[in-house]
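subagent[fold] <- orchestrator: predict structure for attached chain, return tokens only, no commentary.
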Amino acid sequence: MNAWIGSALALLGLVLGGLLMGWQGVLFAATVVVFWLLLQMSRLLRLMKQAGAAPLGQVSNAVMLASQLHAGMKLVDLITLTGSLGQAQGTDAYRWHDAAGDAVEVVLRKGKLAEWRLVRATAPAPAP
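subagent[fold] -> orchestrator:
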């Protein structure tokens, strides 16, 4: 959800609670907003714990990962797809690889996916 929309909904809830039920309505609306924020924080911490336990920069299939990416994805969505944290390749650039040697390199701008490319493993030379 967009941050502006979430803030507007929280403010609307506080105002409506105050108009309809007085200070008890404001208190109730504030409780709902804090509960929502705690749910979001819990979700993020669970995701980071799971991703931190996985091998760094490893995915099951880099080709499938590359096919699921699209511009504008948030970093949280990217970590959810990969299941692990990426290997840092520089400022806002990360890399995930699979067992076959294929890799996906992504570039983030302002926390959103801007560019990505699939790097295929070189095929071994045929035996003579």
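orchestrator: received. Logging for downstream: The domain at 55-119 is CATH 3.30.1450.10 (Beta-lactamase Inhibitory Protein; Chain:B, domain 1). The chain has two domains: 3-52, 55-119.
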